[in-house]
Design a protein that fits this description.
Number of strands: 0
Strand content: under 5%
Helix content: over 70%
Largest sheet: none
Shape: globular
Order of helices and strands: HHHH
Oligomer: single chain
Distance between the termini: 49 Å
Number of domains: 1
Number of helices: 4
Length: 80
């Protein structure tokens, strides 16, 4: 029987949704702890390198946008 995959598995680029959902991800990262943001930006940067190494430019761009969104949230918190 087919089950709906967990929400975290649905994040990331897919053939039917290759564009980065900026507003959704900004809301998501606003709720993260500082520690979780640091882990997430490290993970996104590693994903960029991995996607670049296999030549997947759609996924590389998605994770580049993800790292940028996380960095923007970190910078927003530093300004407070």
């Amino acid at each position: 029987m087919y089950r709906t995959p967990p929400k975290w598995l649905l994040e990331g680029p897919t053939l039917d949704r290759p564009g980065y959902p900026f507003s959704d991800m900004e809301k998501k990262y606003a709720a993260f702890s500082d520690e979780a943001l640091q882990y997430s930006i490290k993970d996104a940067r590693q994903a960029v390198k991995a996607m670049r190494s296999i030549g997947d430019t759609v996924a590389e761009n998605w994770y580049t946008d993800d790292a940028s969104t996380i960095r923007a949230e970190i910078n927003r918190r530093k300004k407070r």
